[in-house]
Each structure stands twice: as C-alpha cells, then as structure tokens.
C-alpha cells in the first residue's frame, strides 16, 4: 500500500505544498533540484498514492472510467480487461468494469456503470445509447460517425484470408461468427469480388460447442459443402477442430480453418491455427489515448483509430 502526501512530506522534511509543486511539475526555479530529486525518489520508493477523492473535489472528476464489455470468459476479453485496468491505472484512473453475457445484458451493464458517475466510458458495443451526452465515450469494434472509435481493419482481415484460401484452391468458403460483425459483411462482399457462391447454409452464428458440432455435422453431410471456414476467433475455430475429431473428419484435408486473435494455444495445438494477430496492446493503448484526449479536450474532432492486423500462416489450411 502506498503512502499519501502528508507522509511523503514528513519523510522528506518539507511542506505538503513543496511536495505538491514537485509532483505536479511546477517546482523548477522555486525548489532546489536536489530537494526535488529527493522527493521524487521517496515517492517512487514508497509507492506514493495520490488522494483521488481530494483531487476529484478540486477538479470535479471521479478519476474513474467505466468499461462495458462482453464477459472475459473468452481469452481476448480477459486480456483486454487486464490491459485496460493497468493502462488506466498508469494515468491515475480506476477502471470500473461491467460485463454482459448476451444481448439482453447490454442495457443492464450500462445502467450499472452509469450509477458510478464515471468521467468517461469505454464501450464494446455501438448499440449502446448514451443518455447523457456529456459523458465522453469511446467505442471499440465499429467505425462510427461522430464518435471516437477504435476498430480493427476488418476489410484487411477478410481480404487477406480470401487471397490466401483462393490461392490454395478453395472456392466454397463458409463463415462462423456474429452476423453483426463487420467481417461478415466483408465476407459477403469478397465472395462477390472473387465470383464465389454465397450459401447461407455454410454460415452460422452458433458459438457454443454443441452448436458448432451440430452445424459441422449438417454441412459435412450435405452434397455441396464448404472446403474452408472463416471463424470469428481461434476459440470457435478450435471448437470446429474438436467437433471434427468427434465426427472423424480429417482436418485440414476435408476442411481448412482460419481463426482470429492468435491465442497462445493457436501455435501448439493440432493443427496449429492460421490466424490473425489482433494486436491487443495497441487496441488498449488507443482506447485509453482517445478516452483521456476526450476528457481533457471535449471539443476535439472525433477520431477513428483503425488498427491493422497481421496474418499468421500455420497448418490449419491446405491445398485442395
């Protein structure tokens, strides 16, 4: 547990006002350099902890950011929650998380965060309606007008996946994931670009293992079936792997898979997954950057930060 300003002042044998000047970068020309260095060294050594309640009374801020996002049961969301908490803490803000498991939980999640009177909101779903427009908000996942947003380059992801699969000879490509996801829209557009068939039977929003098993069994028993699938993430892709093992379907010879997120297991499970690195660190950094920018400068122009991704080719796809 860190010390507070009065304790730091006592340890340095100076006044609290002197400590305040040093910690706020206003001591040059007013306080001797040696004394400044002593205070800063003690602050670091004893983990100085500013009194956020007192600071909030002076600045009319709570120094807390709400984060509304899907349940961290999926590894990507757990990793993002950790990065956001640590990143916000480094800037002196607490993160107040509220998670949802399904669409019905989204509104309740926002209500939970609203009750904490946060200085801003990082939200994972553009369907949020913000009743108080004075609350600075940054969205992740979509490119939206008149909003600060961070999004992955979904067009790039699907384009590179199609280029790779078509180069391997695949002409029947399916999709599994949320149909509201921007990647599904691009999937349908690139099917047209490559003059490939769109078959709704090859697409599914079922994201649980029983659902994936049922879907895989159905599509593999049909006369016309896909030879490759784009999966919403690596977790879903490996559900296909496990379902294929149960159905005695040989992967990737009978069905190639492209995942997303590059989870740690994707490089050492069999087959190792061809996937995309979603660059989680860069996502978190940009969400925090835009959030703090909006708080400090409410009239700044809106920004869409688009994060490029990197395709990682492994063993889950093959020539046909």
Structure characterization notes:
The protein has about 325 residues and is an alpha/beta fold. It is about 40% helix and about 15% strand. It contains eleven helices and twelve strands. The mean pLDDT is about 85.
List the total number of helices. 11
Low-confidence spans: none
The helix fraction, in percent, is: 40-55%
Strand line-up across the major sheet:
2-1-3-4-5-11
Specify the overall morphology: elongated
Distance between the termini: 60 Å
SSE order and pairing:
Elements: H1 5-12, H2 16-23, H3 33-45, H4 52-59, E1 64-70, H5 75-90, E2 94-100, H6 104-114, E3 120-123, E4 137-140, E5 148-152, H7 154-167, E6 173-176, H8 182-193, E7 203-204, H9 209-221, E8 228-231, H10 234-246, E9 256-258, E10 275-277, H11 280-296, E11 304-307, E12 310-312
Parallel strand pairs: 1-2, 1-3, 3-4, 4-5, 5-11, 6-7, 6-8, 8-9
Antiparallel strand pairs: 10-12
Helix pairs in contact: 1-2, 1-3, 5-11, 7-8, 9-10
Features:
single chain; 320 residues; alpha/beta; six-stranded parallel β-sheet; four-stranded parallel β-sheet; 42% helix; 16% strand
């Amino acid at each position: 547990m860190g010390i507070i300003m009065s304790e730091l002042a006592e340890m340095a044998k100076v006044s609290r006002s002197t400590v305040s000047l040093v910690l706020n970068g206003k001591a040059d020309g007013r306080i001797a350099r040696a004394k400044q260095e002593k205070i800063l060294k003690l602050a670091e050594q004893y983990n100085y902890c500013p009194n956020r309640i007192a600071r909030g009374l002076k600045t009319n801020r709570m120094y807390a950011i709400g984060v509304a996002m899907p349940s961290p049961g999926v590894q990507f969301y757990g990793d993002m929650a950790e990065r956001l908490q640590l990143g916000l803490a480094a800037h002196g803000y607490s993160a107040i998380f509220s998670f949802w498991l399904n669409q019905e939980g989204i509104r309740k999640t926002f209500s939970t965060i609203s009750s904490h009177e946060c200085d801003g909101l990082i939200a994972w779903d553009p369907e949020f309606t913000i009743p108080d427009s004075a609350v600075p908000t940054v969205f992740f996942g979509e490119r939206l007008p008149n909003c600060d947003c961070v999004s992955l380059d979904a067009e790039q992801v699907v384009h590179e996946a199609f280029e790779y699969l078509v180069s391997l000879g695949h002409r029947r490509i399916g999709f599994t994931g949320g149909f509201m996801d921007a990647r599904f829209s691009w999937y349908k557009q690139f099917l047209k670009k490559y003059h490939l068939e769109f078959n709704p039977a090859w697409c599914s929003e079922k994201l649980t293992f029983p659902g994936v098993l049922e879907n895989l069994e159905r599509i593999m028993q049909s006369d016309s079936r896909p030879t490759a699938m784009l999966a919403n993430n690596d977790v879903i892709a490996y559900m296909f792997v496990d379902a294929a093992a149960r159905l005695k379907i040989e992967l990737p010879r009978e069905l190639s898979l492209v995942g997303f997120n590059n989870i740690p297991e994707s490089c050492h499970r069999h087959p190792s997954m061809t996937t995309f690195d979603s660059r989680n660190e860069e996502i978190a950094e940009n969400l925090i950057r835009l959030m703090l920018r909006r708080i400090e400068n409410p009239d700044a122009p809106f920004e869409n930060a688009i994060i490029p991704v990197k395709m990682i080719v492994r063993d889950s796809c093959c020539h046909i």
